[in-house]
Specification:
- This protein is of the alpha+beta class.
- It is built from 2 helices and 8 strands.
- A 6-stranded antiparallel β-sheet has the order 3-4-6-7-8-5.
- The longest helix is centred in the middle third of the chain and has 20 residues.
């Protein structure tokens, strides 16, 4: 499946077949200014010992936080992750994990979000914090 949009963001045509969210199986369920929810399968995103890879958690967290910043700033803006930290509390072994992203600070030039990731049993497996830069509006290059 080729994805031409991710939440409110148009995927530029040269990159529609290169989206990491598709490779990891991330699905966005809610995309509102104060709440972004997405899921991701454990299968296919494991580390060698069978647990969900921490880097997959980071991708899910950054995806949800960036979408939240875009819903705040507008899809015509270029949002970039500025700082991401992830604390892994426990490993997910099966099913899907669900990330919930909520704003901690939403400003003119930056926005910071907390993303809580839970396993299929509802246990918190990761807490992430993402700060996004919100540069002044400019036209996106269509390269």
């Amino acid at each position: 499946m080729t994805q031409t949009a991710l939440g409110p963001v148009e995927v530029l045509s040269p990159y529609v077949d290169e989206q990491l969210v598709e490779r990891l199986g991330i699905e966005i369920e809610v995309c509102e200014p104060d709440l972004v929810i997405g899921t991701m399968p454990v299968a296919g995103n494991r580390q060698p010992i069978g647990l969900l890879h921490g880097g997959a958690n980071a991708v899910l967290a950054e995806t949800l936080g960036s979408l939240a910043a875009w819903t705040h700033a507008g899809a015509d803006r270029i949002i970039v992750g500025q700082e991401l930290s992830c604390t892994h509390h426990g490993g997910a072994r099966s099913g899907r994990v669900t990330g919930e992203c909520r704003p901690l600070h939403v400003g003119t030039h930056t926005a910071t979000y907390e993303i809580v990731i839970r396993d299929a049993g509802g246990r918190r497996t990761c807490t992430a914090r993402l700060t996004c830069a919100i540069p002044p509006a400019r036209r996106r290059a269509n390269r």
